[in-house]
């Protein structure tokens, strides 16, 4: 299954996020994921593993497991590179060993002090607060993104972690409209208004953290995952599926793209097998009632400032 983006290209509705995948394990994980059937991979300069992902992709192409045109590869512009969009994109392409990206996203709607292409540590001032560059507007950044499309380096461009107001502004100043807004959304953080706004204006919503972060966000942010919710466990028993599969299926039935992350082979398989059943309207309504407006991914922990405030 795929969603046709505003740009005309098709984006597989289930992808694999590579956040916190490290070292030599990445190659085996990605090769196995491709063999399972994954064709959509979500990367970012900030994940600091584009070179390892590129090595895995090169092997997949060379051995004939898959062709480049069969894959949908996303990566993201880091905050400190808003004034250097072209150079940052070329750096990601070089590391990923690709001639073009299927999708390039503005990772966060904030420009910070430039620390050098390829460096993505948070730019903090002496006070421990994010060193935001107030001379670079998001409109300037977006026109840099549009230039990448003109140059043929990127097929589709989009935004990430933008709210309704920032998304509306992007629609107003853009010549090439954003194809995607990638946001945190899951049963505990449904963001119905933002999802509806984006979809009404032809912007595909991709759900990062679609399972509520699980162990990774508990470790990093101390947050609670919806995977332990009793109502969702009940639905898993009803459909003879795992809780994760029920949550991902809910995301798909909202017409959002889901990009769960897993480093375990059995979970890769499990997360991909979500297209052979359908939740009833009653069960979709039940999950809708679980919304807590609860964000689990909170970068303020590292930045000394809450950008969502």
Structure, explained:
The protein is of the alpha/beta class. 38% of the residues lie in helices and 14% in strands. The chain has an eight-stranded parallel β-sheet. A two-stranded antiparallel sheet has the order 1-2. The mean pLDDT is 94. Keywords: NADP, Oxidoreductase. Residues 15-291 form the NADP-dependent oxidoreductase domain. It holds the Pfam family Aldo_ket_red. This is NADP-dependent oxidoreductase domain-containing protein.
Gist?
The protein is an alpha/beta fold and 309 residues long.
Rounded mean pLDDT score: 94
Q: Pairing-aware structural class of the strands and helices? A: alpha/beta
- Biggest sheet record: 8 strands, parallel
For the record, give the distance between the C-alpha atoms at the N and C termini, rounded to a whole number. Answer: 36 Å
Shape: globular
> Percent of residues in helical segments?
25-40%
Physical arrangement of strands within the biggest beta sheet: 3-4-5-6-7-8-9-10
Q: Which blocks of ≥5 consecutive residues have pLDDT under 50?
A: none
Element layout with pairings:
Elements: E1 2-4, E2 10-12, E3 16-17, H1 25-36, E4 40-42, H2 50-62, E5 72-77, H3 85-96, E6 101-106, H4 138-150, E7 154-160, H5 164-173, E8 180-184, H6 192-200, E9 204-208, H7 214-221, H8 230-239, H9 243-253, E10 257-258, H10 265-272, H11 281-288, H12 300-303
Parallel strand pairs: 3-4, 4-5, 5-6, 6-7, 7-8, 8-9, 9-10
Antiparallel strand pairs: 1-2
Helix pairs in contact: 1-2, 1-10, 2-3, 8-9
């Amino acid at each position: 299954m795929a969603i046709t983006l505003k740009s005309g290209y098709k984006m597989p509705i289930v992808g694999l996020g590579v956040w916190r995948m490290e070292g030599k394990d990445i190659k085996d994980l990605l090769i196995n994921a491709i063999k399972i059937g994954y064709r959509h991979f979500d990367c970012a300069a900030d994940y600091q593993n584009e070179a390892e992902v590129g090595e895995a992709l090169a092997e997949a192409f060379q051995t004939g497991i898959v062709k480049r045109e069969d894959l949908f590869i996303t990566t993201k512009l880091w905050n400190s590179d808003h004034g250097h969009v072209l150079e940052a994109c070329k750096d990601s392409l070089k590391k990923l060993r690709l001639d073009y990206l299927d999708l390039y996203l503005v990772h966060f709607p904030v420009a910070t002090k430039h620390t050098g292409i390829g460096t993505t540590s948070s730019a903090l001032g002496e006070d421990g607060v994010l060193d935001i560059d107030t001379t670079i507007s998001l409109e300037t950044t977006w026109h840099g993104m549009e230039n990448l499309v003109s140059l043929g380096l990127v097929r589709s461009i989009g935004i990430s972690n933008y709210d309704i107001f920032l998304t509306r502004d992007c629609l107003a100043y853009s010549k090439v409209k954003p194809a995607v807004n990638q946001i945190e959304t899951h049963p505990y953080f449904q963001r119905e208004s933002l999802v509806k706004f984006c979809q009404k204006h032809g912007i595909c919503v991709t759900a990062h953290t679609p399972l509520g972060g699980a162990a990774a966000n508990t470790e990093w942010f101390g947050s609670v995952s919806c995977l332990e919710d009793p109502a969702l466990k009940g639905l898993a028993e009803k459909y003879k599926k795992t809780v994760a599969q029920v949550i991902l299926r809910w995301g798909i039935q909202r017409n959002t793209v889901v990009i769960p992350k897993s480093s375990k082979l059995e979970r890769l398989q499990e997360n991909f097998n979500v297209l052979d059943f359908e939740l009833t309207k009653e069960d979709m309504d039940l999950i809708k009632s679980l919304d807590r407006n609860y964000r689990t991914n909170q970068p303020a922990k590292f930045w000394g400032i809450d950008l969502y405030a």
